[in-house]
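Q: Could you fold this chain for me?
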Amino acid sequence: MSESAEEINTLEQDVDLAVHLKRVAYHAGMMLGIDATKDEQAYHRRRVNRLNYWIQGYGTLLGMVVTVSPESSSESDPILTRLIVSPGVGIDALGREVLINEDYCIDLGEWLRAQSETDLREGYDEVENRLWLKVVVRYQDCDVAKQPIVGRKLNLSTDAVQSSRKADSVFLTIVPEIPPENETRYKPWSSHDPIDDETPDGLNLTEENYLTAVEGANEEAFRLLQLHSRMLFALQNNAVNPPIQIDQIADSGFILLARFAIEISDLNIILDAQEGEAVVNPNDIYVNNLVRPFITTSSQLDYLSRTSGE
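A: Sure. Below is the predicted structure, expressed as C-alpha cells.
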C-alpha cells in the first residue's frame, strides 16, 4: 500500500501517544498562520483519538459484517465470487472512528490474480490446503473539494490546486496471513502488550492484605479489584508510546474484521489463472466474523444484566 507524505505525517502523529498536545492560546491582536490552524485541529482530533484508545478500546461497535456473494453455488467449478463488507461503526487500533456507510464489494478472483506469489504464500497452509486471508480496516483521510491556491513555486507547469477539505474515510484491505495461535488473548490497547492474567507482583503488603480481605467478602468485587491491580502495572514494561518502525507506520491502526479460508488443493491454481478466469467458488470459502475484537459498551452490559434471568 502506498500513502502520501501528508498521510504518513498524520499517521506518525496519531501513533505518538506520549507527546503532550498543544492548542492555540488566543490573544487580541495576535496574527495566526497556517501552523496555528493545524495545531488547533490536531489538538481536538487527537484528544478524541486518545480518549477512544485508552477508554473505549478498539474493534467493532456495530455491523461491518464480511460475507461472500453468492453464499453458495450449485456449480462445482469456480464462479464469479465477491467479498462484501456491510455498513457499520467501529474504532480502529489508534482510537480513530471508522464509519462505513455503504456496502464495499471486492471481486475476489480479480484481487487474487493481482497478488504476488510471495504475498499469497504468507497465507497458504500446505498441510490443510487452505489459503488464509484476513479483512482489515482503519481510518483514513480523504482529500476533497479541490480549489485553486496561490502557487508557491515559479514556472509551475500546472495550475496550483489543493483540496480545501479533509473528509473522513476508511482504508479497507485484505492481507494473506495464517491465523496466529494466541489471537484471543486479552489486549485492551492495540499498541501495547497484553496485561498479565494474574495478580501483579508489584503490590505491597498492605495492598495484598486489602485484596485478600475483599476476596473473602465479595467474589465479584475481588475480580474487579484484581483487574484494577493488573491495570496499575499494565504499562510497567511498556513505554506509553512503544517504538514503531517507519516501514510499519502505514500498517498502524488496522483492526481485524474477519478471517476467511479458501480450500484449494494447489496454490498454483490461483497463481496460473489468466485474466478473466474465475479462480474461486463460494462453496470452498469459510468466513469467520467472530474472531474480530468487539467494543463492549455500558448499554450492552446493562442489557445483559437485565436479561440474564430470561
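A (continued): The radius of gyration is 24 Å.
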